[in-house]
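Researcher: Let's do a round of design. I'm pasting the structure tokens now; please hold your answer until I've finished.
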């Protein structure tokens, strides 16, 4: 059985909001030459926001993050699972018959969200997989493996850097790792 942790960034400590796209301050600091700071806007009244939604493969220590630009809905969440399966899961697990998804209890992948359930049923019908979903109880998303094993390193990777464009966000997410290139550390694939 394939075990995948799903992540809706609105419901955990990675970000309690969608990420603002533009030349705005991003918490944290990075080393820069003295007297040469990155100049950012002093107000963050931007309209463009990115909604990161991820899947983390516990067995392979690999992640997939889909960046949405529209509303974070159940359809977006279920399409993110489909995108993970099509781009990574199917090739990693060609003989899989079942998939277990651990997810937060609310938001776009909440236990009561009909769009999420309908999207998962469509995915199960198309893929031929039996889909099992386990929701974490309210307030316990910190136990989700994806929180500590993937998104903590993504947020560390982009701290202090303005998220100017969607391409910058995708590249910063995809370059997050836990060890030097070529070793067995975390690998993340990202798309928008």
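Researcher: That's everything. Go ahead.
Model: Designed sequence:
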């Amino acid at each position: 059985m394939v075990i995948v942790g799903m992540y809706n960034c609105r419901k955990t400590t990675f970000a309690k909001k969608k990420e603002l796209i533009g030349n705005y301050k991003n918490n944290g600091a990075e080393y820069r030459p003295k007297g040469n700071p990155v100049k950012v806007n002093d107000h963050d009244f931007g309209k463009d926001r990115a909604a990161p939604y991820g899947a983390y493969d516990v067995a392979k220590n690999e992640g997939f993050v889909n960046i949405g630009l529209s509303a974070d809905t159940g359809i977006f969440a279920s399409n993110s699972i489909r995108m993970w399966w099509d781009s990574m899961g199917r090739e990693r697990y060609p003989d899989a018959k079942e998939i277990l998804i651990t997810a937060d209890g609310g938001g776009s992948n909440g236990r009561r969200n009909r769009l999420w359930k309908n999207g998962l049923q469509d995915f199960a019908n198309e893929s031929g997989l039996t889909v099992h979903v386990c929701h974490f109880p309210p307030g316990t998303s910190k136990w989700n493996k994806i929180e500590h094993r993937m998104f903590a390193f993504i947020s560390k990777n982009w701290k202090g850097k303005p998220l100017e464009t969607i391409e910058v966000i995708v590249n910063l997410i995809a370059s997050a790792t836990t060890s030097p290139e070529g070793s067995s550390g975390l690998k993340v694939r990202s798309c928008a």
